[in-house]
Amino acid sequence: MDKIYNILKASVFVLVVAGLIIGIQHAAQAGKSSGAPVKAVAVLYPTTGNQVHGTVTFTKVRDGVKVIADINGLSPGEHGFHIHEFGDCTAFNGKSAGGHFNPDGTPHGAQTATAKNRHVGDLGNITAINSGKAHLELVDSMLAFDGAHSVIGRGVIVHADKDDLTSQPTGAAGSRVACGVIGISK
Questions:
Q1: Can 53 be counted among the known catalytic residues?
Q2: Does the annotation count 26 as an active-site position?
Q3: Does the predicted model carry a pTM greater than 0.85?
């Protein structure tokens, strides 16, 4: 009887240890899949003296991050559209957001330029129609939700003028007419 009891006790011990190992492996796998966020949003508010407002969503996709911007209150035409280094819109003129997000120390350029010829935050221009509305959709391979190119917690700035895509360091896009902070979204 003692021999059967010891075999039963050893079997239960083996099953408990196996269950713990499986549980630990499952928890480790779950931790890997939950890593970086997959969606973020910035709500744009006007800087002092402006009426510009809107939303910008950022969604992780296979080729990078998809950016969708819907902005109202702009003058008709093109306006510089950038991610800036700080998620700080407390200054009346948006200057607290700092300069373009440029972790690689590269020159300013077009969103379509190579990684060596643009800032991570260079998203080019957004074009407003006569009603002041602007819509933009693009996928950017340099943007990320983790690592050195993470946009989480950065600022989004819309400028008064067109970004000429060449002037250093910011494209001569003029004053900042709207500012928002990129935060994690559901």
A1: no
A2: no
A3: no
Would residue 62 show up in a list of annotated catalytic residues for this protein? no
Q: Choosing from 84, 118, 149, 154, which is the catalytic residue?
A: 84
Q: Using CA atoms, how far apart are residues 172 and 161, in angstroms rounded to an integer? A: 8
- Alpha-carbon separation of residue 88 from 43, 52, 132, 161, 167 (angstroms): 13, 17, 25, 21, 24
Whether 118 is a known active-site residue: answer no
CA distance from start to end of the chain? 59
Coil, strand, or helix at residue 107?
coil
The pLDDT score that the predictor gives to residue 112 is 78
Euclidean distance between CA atoms 94 and 45, whole angstroms: 10
Would you kindly state where each structural domain of the chain is located, as residue ranges? 1-34, 39-184
**Confidence category of residue 41, pLDDT binned at 50, 70, 90:** very high
Helix (H) or strand (E) holding 5: helix 2-34
Q: Is 119 a catalytic residue?
A: yes
pLDDT tens digits, one per residue of 13-22: 443 334 434 5
| pLDDT tens-digit map of 55-104 | 999 999 999 999 999 999 999 999 999 999 999 999 999 999 999 999 99
Q: Please identify which of the residues 53, 118, 154, 176 carries the catalytic annotation.
A: 176
Look up 149 and say whether it is catalytic.
no
- For the domain spanning 39-184, the CATH number is 2.60.40.200
